[in-house]
Amino acid sequence: MRTFFMIALLTASTATLAAGPQTEDLQSVIKAQQEQIDLLLKQLDQTREVVMELKEQVEANAQVANEANEKAEILADNMEGQSPYAAADKQFAGYDRSGTSSFGGYGELHANSLENKLTGEDSNQLDLHRFVLYFAHDFNERTRFMSELEIEHALSGDGKPGEVEIEQAYVEYDWAQNQSLRAGVFLIPVGILNETHEPPTFYGVERNPVEKNIIPTTWWEGGLQFHGGFADAWRYDAAVHSGLYTDADDNYAIRAGRQKVAKAKLDSGAATGRIRWLGVPGLELAASIQYQGDITQETDPTAGSAWLYTGHVSWRHKAFGLRALYAGWSLAGEGPEDIGADRQNGWYIEPSWRFSQKWGVFARYNRWDNKAGNSDDTEYAQWDFGVNYWPHPNVVFKLDYQDQDAPDGKNELDGWNLGVGYQF
After folding, report:
1. How far apart are CA 204 and CA 192, in angstroms?
2. Which of 187, 196, 262, 413 is deepest in the core (most CB within 10 A)?
């Protein structure tokens, strides 16, 4: 039976090969299929080349995006804890402006319970220290207006403790990529707190005494300021502006010389320059210098020019934070020299620990002297210890204790400070 099937199969195969037309049809089909296969292989090679080009482009785009993200992360880390509308670096971090106008503000309420060690008297006070409204308007993508209206101590007028002030009011024009010009009233680019002093951005109820008495925060002037960045991590500021006006009646004290651009004397202007480096996430290194031709606005022939030098570091690494600053003035003339006010300087160091999103503690040591050129003891020192609680990133409750060491015969204030602050 098996032999029979093999003979039948062989006979059928022979018959098929003998059919010439059927063989030719089969060869034609095979040839057509081969041509289609060749065409498909050619198309596959072309597709493979396109895919490889797209892959290379995607990888290149991904590298550019990663570099941009790294730069943005560096800037974001350095901006952590800043005001939500601080203009200093937003243009470099890719912030998207929604709409043409914006509104914001900040404020703080303080309760102070201090004892004067010199007189033995207690001072217990509740004060709406600041209420600030911020307004901005974008005329177009390159031109904008910034302003701040501030009320200090809640109530102003004759015999009242408060003031109404315009802290900022300037037009900013982006004349090139990452380069801008400001014209109007602006905060002087010195120190840590002078430009960024909203309550949730720093430790302690009161602003530190070094930046208050030496720089002096908050300090604004009217003029022109160039602001920009270069080489990814570098920022610069260069400004010409109105200057301070202090004299012998004020012991040439720096803080007393702020004119606040209110019919300010302009017999002697000033110039300020600052450079900052933000190359490591969470770290800012900065130095500034200012020169004024005559700090008495040509009213005191025994006084003259003044130089200000500042340097600071602000660093945050995970939960640990550190701020340190030095500021020093050099005043020319016999008038300041005779009372020791020719040199006025101060410094502080402030470590902190943010042990959760909501809780942080700090300690700060401050030393300052507005008559450092005097051989007598005129230097102040102060320890501050405290805690901040943020129920929201833009709302903070603060409690701290200050221990002051004053020169002989001067008021020495020790005690507790309690405060609440916000920004929006």
Report:
1. 14
2. 187
What's the CA gap between 169 and 184, in Å, rounded? 6
For the residues 229-248, what does the mean pLDDT come to? 97
DSSP state letter for 156: B
Backbone angles phi, psi at 157, to 5 degrees: 135, 180
User: What is d(CA 286, CA 372) in angstroms, rounded to the nearest whole number?
Assistant: 24
Identity of the residue numbered 267? D
Question: What residues form DSSP beta bridges with 312?
Answer: 286, 325
Domain made up of 100-423: CATH architecture? Beta Barrel (2.40)
Q: Is the pLDDT of residue 387 over 70?
A: yes
- The residue with greater pLDDT, 204 or 25, is 204
Cα–Cα distance measured from residue 12 to residue 128, given in angstroms and rounded to the nearest whole number: 111
pTM for the model stands at 0.79
- The crossing angle, in degrees rounded to 10, of helices 20-79 and 2-18 is 90
- 377-410: buried (b, 16+ CB within 10 Å) or exposed (e) per residue? ebbbbbebebebebeeebebbbbbebebebbeee
3-class DSSP state of 172: strand
CB 155 within 8 A of CB 163: no
Beta strand pairing status for 320-331 and 343-353? antiparallel
- Please give the C-alpha separations between residue 134 and each of 47, 68, 81, 102, in angstroms, as whole numbers: 57, 30, 18, 8
Which whole-number Å values give the CA distances from 105 to 98, 136, 151, 216, in the listed order?
17, 11, 12, 22
Cα 226 to chain centroid, rounded = 17
What Rg do the C-alpha atoms of the chain give, in angstroms? 35
On whether the CB atoms of residues 242 and 266 are closer than 8 A, the answer is yes
Q: Residue ranges per domain, the chain?
A: 21-79, 100-423
Asked if residue 200 lies in contact with residue 189, where contact means CB atoms within 8 angstroms, the answer is no
What pLDDT was estimated at residue 76?
46
**In terms of pLDDT, which residue wins out, 88 or 397?**
397
Cβ partners under 8 Å of residue 41, min gap 6: none
Tell me how far apart the alpha carbons of residues 366 and 404 are, in angstroms, rounded to a whole number: 9
